[in-house]
Amino acid sequence: MAMSRFTLLLVCGLALAAGTFASRPLAESDVLELKADTPASAPESAPEYAESPESAPENTIPGTLVGYDGDIFSTLVAAATAADLVTALDGDGPYTVFAPTNEAFAGYLAENSLTAEDVLASPELKNILLSHVVASKFTAKDVLGLDLPTDVETLSGAKVKVELKDGKLLVAGNEVTLADIMAANGVIHGIDGVITDTK
What we know:
Blueprint: H1 5-18, H2 61-65, H3 74-82, H4 86-89, E1 95-100, H5 102-111, H6 116-121, H7 125-130, E2 133-134, H8 140-144, E3 150-153, E4 159-165, E5 168-171, E6 174-183, E7 186-191
Parallel strand pairs: 1-7
Antiparallel strand pairs: 1-2, 3-4, 4-5, 5-6, 6-7
């Protein structure tokens, strides 16, 4: 039987993930000196991210993810399309999306002995993806201003733990490797894993 368009998209995304595309580390230009009003509870090694750009982005979250930085989120886009979430993420928001890279998805499949077809057929796909979305806009600076560690409720109804550990900002144990990718209806943070540890 011929693969559906969604299956083909996800398989192509996974092929990219296994190839040359990988998340890039935060560049020096992404980092600012710690400010005096940083909460005293934050360790000295806490990351500090750049201010959000002043100009308003034109694309919504799905449009921003498509083709970003060598298409490193193509697997997420394909999965969101298969789960019929693109229209929802195209709405007014605001939303915060913790976006696994292609490499993160490839690792998730390998660790769980899954195929792309298994993921697409899973009745849990939609809930797994919704566990990556918060119905508020949190820039990295906003997150670092919270009383960490803290639990944040996602659109799946589950909560994920946000914390600072060894100088890294973690969401459900996954590191934020790309911060403050701005969209017209929210913000995207690239993470190095798929969120499965929820409360």
